[in-house]
Amino acid sequence: MGHPLKFSALVVLALATGACADAGGCSKKDGPCPTMAAANVAPSQGGNAGEVGTGCVVGVDCSPPMGWRSWNTFFGDVTQDLMTSVMDVMVAKHDDGVSLASAGYSDVGLDDNYQSCNKGVNGTFHDWDEQQAAYVNLIRDDTFPDMKAMNDYAHSLGLTSGFYENNCICSEGAWDVGNEQAVYDHYRGDVADVVAYGYDSVKLDGCGPFLNLTLYQELLNATGKYFLIENCHWGGTVPTLDWCPWSYFRSSGDIQANWASMFSNLQTTIPYQDKNAPLSRPGCWAYPVSADAITQSIAAATVRIAAPPSSSSAAAAAAAALSVSVAGHARSRQPGDLRGGPGALRRLVCHLVASHPRP
Questions:
Q1: Which segment of 106-115, 191-200, 272-281, 315-324 scores lowest on mean pLDDT?
Q2: What share of residues in the chain are helix, strand, coil (percent, to 5)?
Q3: 39's torsion region: left (phi>0), alpha (psi -120 to 50) or beta?
Q4: 167: which DSSP letter?
Q5: Which of 37, 125, 194, 326 could form a disulfide with 9 if both were Cys (CB 3.0 to 4.6 A apart)?
Q6: Phi, psi of 78 (to 5 degrees)
């Protein structure tokens, strides 16, 4: 099926207002349940967000995450320059002062193909780093000459930034998964990169063999910072009432850019919307993936909407989560490509805000 996740921006939306899950427990879906000291994190709402698989942290994932991700805009042709141009568009104010960031879409996520394929150990894109004492990602310096500077720029604009790991392009099936220490050092290297490059969130895909989300959260929490974590295992790894080592999880497979496909994917959230004990809850939001259906070019900014406006409203009404594709970037366009008027971005933002009240 190619790349399993094709969406530009993530807007996870729900009307559920229940408290966070109680602390404790681990389903062992990801293998042995690790033990750890609580990280030094911000105050939590319910549960104990410093422990693996429980609770949420105010300002991170107690409310549904909202933002943008690169895949459905640039696919594998993403660069640092394009990412920073997106950041500029996210904070640019239009007409009456509304920007995507001021409307809450404040996390800018990098997706696949930043890595140097086949340049690392066993033909992977990880190699040993003496300073980190772990296997770290090998970054393409032709497209991402200074990833830390890119994230510093996002922070200077008041945005947060997201990384992407367990990649699908040149996925690391060749890794020696039988060597337990090497596997552990790979997880450690992934987490070290999130910290070293200054990311605030991370999307963990399902293409490589590194699927232990409990271990990822254990290592991330141990850094002393609480990170927004996306579980992109296409509905294959789901929470229990007392175990959810991520902030939001994809409930569906791929989607086509049509109403029937969107509506079918929306239904995958139903099992997580129990009235009395919802598995989709603060700190553990379900979302069905969406794909581009409409493209509007506005001056030098391109805005992509994942699905018809009524679909986003349907998701909110169902107390379900929805991925909406919203991409903005500065690129030259042929005159015939321009559609929509100067106020189109403002109207889009106002629609999204009206359709998706945050709990």
A1: 315-324
A2: 25, 15, 60
A3: beta
A4: -
A5: 326
A6: -80, 145
- Please write the tens of the pLDDT for every residue from 281-314: 999 999 887 543 322 222 223 333 333 344 444 4
**Residue 246 Cα distances to 60, 61, 187, 257, angstroms:** 11, 9, 15, 27
For 82, 104, 219, 324, the CA distances from 327, given in Å and listed in that order, are 11, 14, 31, 10
Torsion of CA 221, 222, 225, 230, to 10 degrees: -30
Fold of 67-355: TIM Barrel (3.20.20)
292: nearest Cα among 308, 310, 312: 308
**Tens digit of pLDDT for each residue in 125-181?**
999 999 999 999 999 999 999 999 999 999 999 999 999 999 999 999 877 767 899
Please name the amino acid found at residue 17: T
As given in the structure block, the two tokens for residue 153 are 């720029």
- Gap between the Cα atoms of 42 and 37, Å rounded: 15
Domain boundaries, the chain: 67-355
